[in-house]
Amino acid sequence: MSDDRPTRRDLMKPVQLLGMAFGAAAFAGIVTLVSMGFFQQRTSEEAQAAVILALIIAGVTFITVLVVVALLLLAVDPAQVTKQVDKPVLLPDSDDDHGDDEGPDAAAGGTPKA
After folding, report:
1. For position 48, what pLDDT does the model report?
2. How far apart are CA 53 and CA 107, in angstroms?
C-alpha cells in the first residue's frame, strides 16, 4: 500500500500557485486600466501612462500573491490535512483545566501559595 499522506507539493502544485498569482495580477491590471479610463477616448500619452501603471500594479500583485500564498503553505503541516478534527480548534488540549492546586492566581502569573 502506498503512502496516502499528502505532501506540500500535493497541497498546492507550483502551476496552480503561479496560475492563482497570474489571475490576481490580471484582475488588478484590468481594474487599473478601467479605473484610469484606458478604454475611453484618451490621448496617447494618457493611454501609455495607464498601461505602464497597470503593468506595475499587475507585477506587484503577482509577486505579492506568490509570496503570501507560499508563506501560508509553509504553515500547513501535511500530516494534519487528512486528520479529522472532532473538537473546537481554539480550546486547550487538556480536558481537565479546573483541577489546578494553585488556584486561578497561578495561571494568571500571580505568586504561588505556600
Report:
1. 94
2. 55
Total number of residues shown for the chain: 114
Who contacts 102 (Cβ-Cβ below 8 Å, separation ≥6)?
112, 113
Task: List Cβ neighbours of 37 (8 Å cut-off, separation of 6 or more).
Answer: 46, 50
Q: Where on the phi/psi map is residue 5: left (φ > 0), alpha (ψ -120 to 50), or beta?
A: beta
Residue 15 has φ and ψ, to the nearest 5°, of -65, -40
Residue 87's identity, in one-letter code, is K
Q: What is the pTM of this model?
A: 0.62
User: How much is the average pLDDT of 55-73?
Assistant: 94
Q: Which of 9, 1, 57 is nearest to 33 (CA)?
A: 57
Q: What is the predicted pLDDT for the residue at 1?
A: 47
